[in-house]
Design brief:
With 181 residues, the chain is mostly helical. The protein has one domain (33-180): Orthogonal Bundle (Tetracycline Repressor, domain 2), CATH 1.10.357. Helix content is 75%, strand content 0%. It starts with a helix and ends in a 5-residue tail after the last helix. This is DNA-binding transcriptional regulator YbjK.
């Protein structure tokens, strides 16, 4: 809904209509617009975490150590192909909510927690892969990968070329894990 109509189209009444529930249902559960935004944002964060667990092959340090740069890039490319394909609307909604969220103090904690989760995961990945400075490079890795997604969404590039995504991600990973190039 957010991806289709933007945040201006997000009202309790519109949620009721889209969900085909009686009028007033959304406002019963989410009394304010901010409460509605919080619930949507939390759901997006949870879905992103589930997707990451599904598409990324890194369950522990040992699997990362044994994984080469190309295999890591392939995992990220699978995830991004999903987000830019079937998950495209959700990704557009996430960006809209992240931008809007900075205007609402009530959403800051949720946004900061989500950011910390992604950056923490990047730091763990880099540390396990023997990266030279995971604390410095974790936020950089997240920013670069997020920028790749943002570019695909904002520029409205149709279709997803998983091989090209993999190549770009391999370049990014090579920048923060030069010893694996």
């Amino acid at each position: 809904m957010v991806a289709d109509s933007g945040l201006r189209g997000l009202t309790h009444r519109a949620v009721d209509a889209r969900a085909e529930v009686p009028a007033g249902s959304a406002s019963y559960y989410f009394r304010t617009r901010v409460a509605l935004l919080q619930a949507i944002l939390q759901r997006l964060i949870d879905l992103d975490a589930a997707d990451s667990a599904t598409y990324l092959p890194f369950d522990d340090e040992a699997s990362v150590r044994a994984t080469d740069l190309a295999a890591m890039a392939a995992g990220w490319a699978r995830l991004f192909t999903h987000w830019l394909g079937p998950g495209r609307q959700r990704l557009r909604a996430r960006y809209a909510l992240y931008l809007e969220g900075r205007h609402h103090a009530e959403l800051h904690e949720l946004l900061d927690t989500a950011s910390a989760r992604f950056v923490g995961g990047a730091r763990e990945l880099l540390a396990a892969a023997g990266g030279p400075d995971p604390d410095r490079d974790g936020p950089l890795l997240v920013a670069l990968l997020d920028g790749l997604l943002y570019d695909q969404i904002i520029r409205g590039r149709p279709g997803v070329d998983e091989a090209e995504l993999r190549r770009r991600i391999e370049v990014i990973l090579g920048a923060v894990l030069p010893h694996l190039r």
